[in-house]
What we know:
alpha/beta; Rossmann fold; 4-stranded antiparallel β-sheet; 10 helices; 12 strands
Amino acid sequence: xxxxxxxxxxxxxxxxxxxxxxxxxxxxxxxxxxxxxxxxxxxxxxxxxxxxxxxxxxxxxxxxxxxxxxxxxxxxxxxxxxxxxxxxxxxxxxxxxxxxxxxxxxxxxxxxxxxxxxxxxxxxxxxxxxxxxxxxxxxxxxxxxxxxxxxxxxxxxxxxxxxxxxxxxxxxxxxxxxxxxxxxxxxxxxxxxxxxxxxxxxxxxxxxxxxxxxxxxxxxxxxxxxxxxxxxxxxxxxxxxxxxxxxxxxxxxxxxxxx
Length: 259
């Protein structure tokens, strides 16, 4: 059970801020949804937490451990990032690709333990994707490879899981399967921070909804009222999506046509 804290974080590229003065504290078992317009810095925030770009200012900790002082291997034991795209490499199976996710913490020649393999197959059985483990990546659809990417991230024992548009290539059935898997992981205590573009999915599945607002000195982070309070959440979401309306039964969002 770990708490991720961002304190006055500024991050960007070539010393130019994309994000400015970001404060965030997460709690175990939460699903946090990050919204924002294209180019607002959503992926940049995930990269900063992952450690693939340095901070320009501020501090990030997990349980009071400063992430900046950790090696890549030590950081990978705390934070897992789901890659956006798994290449269709002929000759590699879904299981091979999942096993590669353990290299950074166990070394290139580190083998999966029996309990690792059992966990992978149990999760694959639960969500009806066991056949993908033995399937060649080159024979999979983009959505099936995305499910393998999710499995690769989910089975690693890190308290923090980052996902960048995990539903982008999934059909309706796979999308619901993915969210079912994420809710189960959150129930087990993982903290999940994911980038989405669909406010309906955010309202349905997020315990907390955040959004980045672009400003001249770098984007700033806001939090939307609890999805349980739909009127207040809708009002705040309209700042990001002018004209947005939330239909409450069944829940979906649509844009009002211009008069």
